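Subject — a protein and its fold
Encoding — discrete vocabulary of local shapes:
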Amino acid sequence: MKAAVYYNLDDIRVEDVSKPKPGPDEIVVEMKACGLCGSDLMDWYLRSRAPLVLGHEPTGVVAETGRKVKAFKPGDRVFVHHHVACLTCHYCIHGDYTMCAQFGQTHIHPGGFAEYFRVPAENLQKDTFKIPEKVSFEEATLIEPTACCIRAQNKLGIQTGDTVAIIGAGPSGILHLLLSKMAGASKIIVIDLIDYRLKMAEKFEADLVVNSKLENLSEVVKGVTDGRGADVVIVTAPVKKALTDGMRICRRGGTVCLFAPTRPNEYARVSPHRLFFSEITVIPSYSTSHVETRIALQLIISGRIRARDLITHRFPLNRAAEAFQTAAKTKRCLKVVVLNK
């Protein structure tokens, strides 16, 4: 079968690899669509593991089932989550599913950017579910990224009437915009350096967009919040300046969400003095769990998450390299999806 193998961001090769076979408690899925995530573009995050097949936002059709599998059958349309927690360890008992040791050890094989992938028993039992006919395979690729945003939003506790500032107008930023509206935010400010993405944020009804390369970010945000700053700041851009900007535009007593990682050797300067006297809360949020994926599907089914409108580019599997370059280099896109045709 064909799979897009990642060697580095500028070297994605469509190669012949062995088609997986299901174990007794496993299934093999024919990939129909798989979203390209921002983490798929982080060469520093992936370099030590290359070559590998990426893709953790897949949907498809069950092609084969193991002899012990009862809940799924060939032909079922499914979403599969690539990581699942054990549900019994100390972290899981406290609801910190993404900190579970098993979470990072469970993977679909070889990855979502392949014609077929195998779903291990743990993933099948805990976070694989059927998707209804009314939701397309492309739309269902938004389940995982939407779930990641839901998990962060649940941590933040946005209140009715809050002002929310979102730094980064990529797919995650737009999802946070939609979810913040649902949470009752009265004013949502979206910040980016790329006019294309700011225009997309306007399309999704941001109240204010700011190009921080051209405008004084602090002055703009404080100017529309009676000098206070934003109640909640969500940083979706994986650069340290985005975090320091987020700290600067957050009001006293407000909350900053760190939603994207920087390189491991990068450090942002934070004043403990200001943190203490301003009582700013910093909340990181990494990945998602079986709890939020089902909520995400319901929001997509209802149309409250406009999944189809988030997808701007589609590429067949044999043009996976072009999909990566589009997402990484042009920036004139939101969600890029790879299709198995």
Q: What stands out?
A: The chain has two domains: 2-142+305-339, 156-284.
